[in-house]
Amino acid sequence: MSIMKPINERLIELREHSQLNRQHFATRIGIDQGTYSRYELGQTKPSFDTLEKIAICFPKVSATWLLTGKGQMFTDAKPDVVDSPVMQSVEESEEMKELKKDRDAWRDMAMALIKSPSAAALLGKLKGNPDAAETIAEFFRSQMRASYAA
């Protein structure tokens, strides 16, 4: 007779195998992180409703394994991580960080160009010119091209 892991150990195993921290796992199944932590610590046991949420959020997890500890964790031995909303959110967050870096770099470059002597000279010449905006835009484009070429 094999010794089966208690539910708290199965939850830890599933979460770690899915490469999620407690907060992300709890968010994914729609419960409070503190409640989920108590499950993992063995202080309380998850309700049937919570186990059902886990089964729905992790469709490749064997319901038999989740409920009893018998059999294999995954029905096809692959966790459903790549398509998870949490992982998508993490990836989007990383993309946002990159976009913010790009935005900051563009802002810094624009400020440097604005403060440059050649920009000041150009702006002085364009005062009152109706085509000033287009001339300024072209000036900045040429400066950007020059900075990339360097």
Automatic annotation (TrEMBL):
What is the name attached to this protein's record? HTH cro/C1-type domain-containing protein
Which intervals hold domain HTH cro/C1-type? 11-66
GO terms, molecular function: DNA binding
**InterPro entries recorded:** Cro/C1-type_HTH, Lambda_DNA-bd_dom_sf
Alphabetized Gene3D superfamilies for the sequence: lambda repressor-like DNA-binding domains (1.10.260.40)
Q: Which domain of life is it from?
A: Bacteria
Please report the organism this UniProt entry assigns to the protein: Hymenobacter crusticola
